[in-house]
Amino acid sequence: EKSEVLGVMAKADMKPKSMHRAKIWSDDIENLYRFQQAGYRDEVEYKQVKQVDVVECWPETGFIKKLQRRDNTFFYYNKQRECEDKDVHKVKVYVY
Question: Is the pLDDT of residue 20 over 90?
Fold first, then answer.
């Protein structure tokens, strides 16, 4: 049990080494777009802040279904793509 706690603590300190902007849409970019709309960098930060192990996704597409914002309100997302081509360049891709 102790090692589990240490693992969580190590993960909590993860900071991105660099960041670049998305150029083309993909499933990963779609999910990053959803995290960033809800006010998080990415899945790593979301899991740190909300202390969750699993993010709820649509089984059909694998896209994120719902996220809890920092003010505890929820964002609900569609099964289909939501990040339009004109918004792809706004998505920040963090490298750890």
Answer: yes
Contact 55, 67 (CB under 8 A): yes
Q: Percentage of the chain surpassing pLDDT 70?
A: 86
pTM above 0.90, yes or no: no
Per-residue pLDDT, 6: 43
Task: Domain ranges for the chain, please list them.
Answer: 18-95
C-alpha count within 13 angstroms, C-beta hemisphere, residue 57:
16
Q: What does the CA dihedral 13, 19, 21, 23 come to, rounded to 10 degrees?
A: -100
Q: 91, 83 in Cβ contact below 8 A?
A: yes
- What is the C-alpha separation between 89 and 11, in angstroms, rounded? 28
